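FOLDING PROBLEM:
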Amino acid sequence: MLYSEKVMDHFANPRNVGEIADADGIGEVGNAKCGDIMKIYLKIENGIISDVKFKTFGCGAAIATSSMATEMIKGKSIEEALTITNKAVVEALDGLPPVKIHCSVLAEQAVKAALIDYYKKQGLEPPADLEVSVCSGDCEGCGH
């Protein structure tokens, strides 16, 4: 299984690792059964993601996709962050082996879960099309 230089760099030197104590939004996705759990913390000021941190328990690809996803949304508006896709994360990393694509889906879902949490904490209704698919832990039956 070959990983791109970008994947290896984000795995060996992950960006934005940690927690934000007073986070405006926190999203946690994954399942211990498949071994990948991702938690993303957002600090949002005037509709802009001013800071983002993550903690990921998982394989190198899960850590790399978490790192890349945080880099892609930092400094962006909520609206821009909502457009992040697993495909964009994979492309930004110059690709992933097919067996590891599910890791990028977790990164996208963690960002969305954190934004849903943010909306709820603000007393706002999250956009109707903003939803997070929950990992069942059935990796064989997973469509990702």
